[in-house]
Structures are given as structure tokens and as C-alpha cells.
Amino acid sequence: MQKIIIRLIIDIAIALAVLNGWWFIVLPLSFVGIWIFPFFIEIVIAGWVYDSLFGFVPEMGLWGYAGTLTSVLFLSIISLVKGSIR
Questions:
Q1: Which residue, among 12, 7, 69, has the nearest Cα to 39 in the 3D structure?
Q2: How far apart are CA 17 and CA 78, in angstroms?
Q3: Higher pLDDT residue, 56 or 4?
Q4: Measured between alpha carbons, how far is 39 from 37 in angstroms, rounded to an integer?
């Protein structure tokens, strides 16, 4: 029950930070979420929402998808590191 409450608090904080465009808050919260919880897909959702709000412009090329690509990269790297440490 306590982990569910912590996950909800982290999710709400991530959602509010993404809506305001504050990636400097989203990334540390996502790192904590990935480390604590077994499958923290919320970081990918946050990246997708961020790109939907501030990116996805065809003229930007891959930079328009920077939030999604970064979130998938961080999820993959931290999951691999967590698996090798634990």
C-alpha cells in the first residue's frame, strides 16, 4: 500500500512538471521511480506527453522527439544497471 502511494505521488509530480516543461524536475523523479519500482513506464509516457506539448514539429527532425527518445534511453540504461547491480 505504501509503494502505491509513493508511486502516485511521483506520478503526480512528474505530470505537473511535464505540463510546465520542467525536465530538470522530471528526470530525477524518474530516476527514483525507475530504481524503486520494477517497471516504471511513466517516464516514457512523460516523454511522449512532453513531445506532444512542445515537440513533434516536422521541421525539427529528431529534436522534435527528444523527450521520447531520452526517456526510452534512460529507462533502458537504468533498468540494465539495476539488473546487473541487484
A1: 7
A2: 21
A3: 4
A4: 6
